[in-house]
Amino acid sequence: MALLRALALVLIAGATALAQSAGYGVGRTPTAAEIRAWDIAIGPGGEELPPGKGTVREGAQVYRAKGCAGCHGPNGTSGKAPTLKANRGKDAETWSRGRILPVRAPHATIVWDYINRGMPLNREGTLTPDEVYALTAYLLFINEVIAEDDVMDEKTLPKVKMPIGDDYAKLPDWKPRTPRLKGYFHQPR
Amino acid sequence: MGSKQPARREFLKSGAALAGGLTLGAATPALGQSPAGSQSHDQHPAPAMIKEGHDQIAYGERSKHVTSVRIAHGGRPSPDSWGLTFHVAAPLQDSVGVITPSSLHYMGTTRGSFLPDIDPQEHQLMIHGLVDRPLTFTVADLKRLPSVTRLHFIECAGNRSSRRAKTVQDTHGMTSCAEWTGVLLSTLLRECGLKGSATWFVAEGSEEIKGASSMPIAKAMDDCIVAYGMNGEAVRPQQGFPVRLMVPGFEGIFHTKWLRRIKVVDRYYMNYNDYGHLDRDPKVAALDYQIGPKSVITFPSGSQQLPGKGFYEISGLAWSGGGAIKLVEVSTDGGKRWNKAEFKSTPQRMAHARFGYMWNWDGQPTEILSRCTDEIGQVQPSREQIAKYWNRPYDQTFSVPGLDNSIQPWRIASDGSVTNGFA
Lengths: 189, 423
What we know:
Chain A is mainly α. Chain A has helices at residues 2-13, 15-21, 32-38, 56-65, 68-72, 101-104, 108-118, 129-142, and strands spanning 53-55, 151-153. Chain A has a domain at 53-159: Cytochrome c-like domain (Cytochrome Bc1 Complex, Chain D, domain 2), CATH 1.10.760. Chain A is built from eight helices and two strands. In chain A, strands 1-2 form a two-stranded antiparallel sheet. The N and C termini of chain A lie far apart (49 Å). Residues 1-38 of chain B have low confidence and may be disordered. At the A-B interface, helix 3 and helix 7 of A face strand 5, helix 6, helix 7, strand 13 and helix 9 of B.
């Protein structure tokens, strides 16, 4: 198969393409298990989420048991680490509630992803999937994003309706050698 | 050190007998004529000696008289109370040429981060996702592949001047430029074979938080580098040893340090780093991504002092995420007239360019400024022009939307003191 592809490229793009595309044969093929273990980037669809579940009540317990309160405050506020609970409730306009992860994130999966990869400080990667689901549920609940009896798991989490909805700017379609914003301080052509 | 001097002088004397004036040069012509120790008759005393221990032979240090250092940026100390390094600014006021020494290169981290101590023998870079052949590369593997060496700047999104800032290190120190060596990411992605649906990729570091960002595949295939070399040696730990991603012209956080993984995906992945850069206005989002054309005068700059009227070479740096700098202009009269500055070397794409302009100061108070234009025609605006663009009043509450590439004014007082023009 690789040989066929290489031959096709030679025919299409000429001999120089061979050096670039036929492969140097450097590098090793990782196993499926290795990829699964390394792949902690949870996309908006939540496909990479591991099986597990957690409730708001469990999350409140984990929050205390794992020392989250030590840096983030007993209720997600007034700690020396970033605030986890917005001052303003769900009736306030989302952008006015501040840059608080469980409020402004466009997908609940980002909250899970961040806790999983980045918390607790100095003990990153030690939380079980259930604990991460529980903490995510707790943070979403204290910000009035989900109800107290909602259960977060790999199916429900990606479906959480986040307060920001689609009220955020999409990135421009980036192209090389193109001004960053058309009409913004550009030399007359 | 002083006690060693007589012995060294004896050595120099015998050396002079062997090699004549050639090795000693013009600094010590009187040496052979003066009795050792009678320095009062010595017109050109030999300088004191730097004690050269084995460390100094093995890895040279700069002069103790050169004291330029980095500083914590934006009021948050590094390391902070958790021991995390956050943002550290480069001393641009002392910079010459276009390369920032590795030891003085600015540093930024995802949320504040610890510095990982990575064994390069153990380190691996995995590329997977929407590719035909997922591959894992060791550092040794990467070094077998065709390399590139390019000058590139990196600038932090938070690099903006304020009224409170005093020096150019405060106002602009979160940019630096180095010579980077590594493998083009496009080379690695071709090894893996991109699937047709590949439109974005996620780059992830191996520090404790494993900072990850989403970037367009078009950028990966254009000019991203998986870099293992920096300024002629291995990338420094603070800069991502053993390998970091270079994303020329994009804001600093995309230049993923301690790179361990590239995941090829079919949509914007909205990782934590991406979420941190959410904007509401699409125009602001567009201005928050690729670095705009930007320049700043590094001499004379804030807190420096001109000894009196007369000639000075105004010196500064210009850079752009859009390509190479094409033109730099300097004004020495508060922006009434603009004069073309001279490039000190050929400007490179997405790299600092050093410019200079000879100025004969008449001793009167004035304001000096620089502005630049890049090769795709983007122009560096003033804050007043930017406020007008957004139809907002230009007052002290105005903050530049998106990445701030506005013109920096430096005020020169009649006593030669230099201060921030925004103050």
